[in-house]
Amino acid sequence: MTAGARLRAAVEAERPLQIVGAVNAYAAMLARRAGFRALYLSGAGVANHSLGLPDLGMTNLGDVMVDAARITRAVDLPLLVDIDTGWGHAFTIDRAVRELESVGVAGVQIEDQAGAKRCGHRPNKAVVEMSEMVERVRAATAGRKDDSFVVVARTDARAVEGLDQAVARAVAYADAGADVIFAEAPGNAEELRAFTSALDVPVLANITEFGVTPLLSLEELRDAGVAIALYPLSAARAAARAADTVYSAIRTDGTQSGVVDGMQTRDELYEVLDYLRFERALDAVREEDV
User: Fold this and answer.
1) What global pTM score does this model have?
2) What is the pLDDT of residue 290?
3) Within 10 Å of residue 5's Cβ, how many Cβ atoms?
4) Which residues are bridge partners to 154 per DSSP?
5) Is the pLDDT of residue 172 over 70?
């Protein structure tokens, strides 16, 4: 079964399907260990955590490819990848889809923001004309080799043009071939229901912290008809806070002894990585050489 087919199967098996963000291969392994069925590589995650940049459209396909390939090599969970606005036009979108599909990605998410995009929960966003985004969606679906590869169309129009126009855009994107609609930054569950009521394709809700959308529970999302619940950077935010705390303690106290209880142990790390299996194989080779 292809990666795209596995993502589609997960959406059917678990409603709403919880998809968590992983900013690197080890985070992906931890998510798999926790029992999640699918993963997400956030554009903000690549920009912030791999490049130390703000999420303002400053990454490129090569940056995303590196992180995506590392994750798909490390785990067999289907990976959905954020490609922002597609880095240009139909040809660049087509290439992004082909390249990411070639490294085992299950699907891509493309949005209708203008070129210098912003975080979806920041003010003063701008969106392209509906017709331009329709062409983005068509380019993404045309670029895939596997028909089960998933194309997610995100609309940021709620904050720019209002709810009714955002829903109209979502319908147009679905009609253009989008497999899933990502309704960005609705203000409540009722606004999400407006999308799910108007669409025949699955709707994704971005349950990100410190944003416009409340942290709705799975039951609330289910009642609103949402098919996918996305948590794009929850673990990354927690890891960054933990790292900040540890660095501050070492610098201030001259020792890490006060924060060791909050760390993953060496044995826990080895268990996640199956380290001892590698070590036993190395020892066996050395014994043969003797």
Assistant:
1) 0.96
2) 59
3) 16
4) 111, 182
5) yes
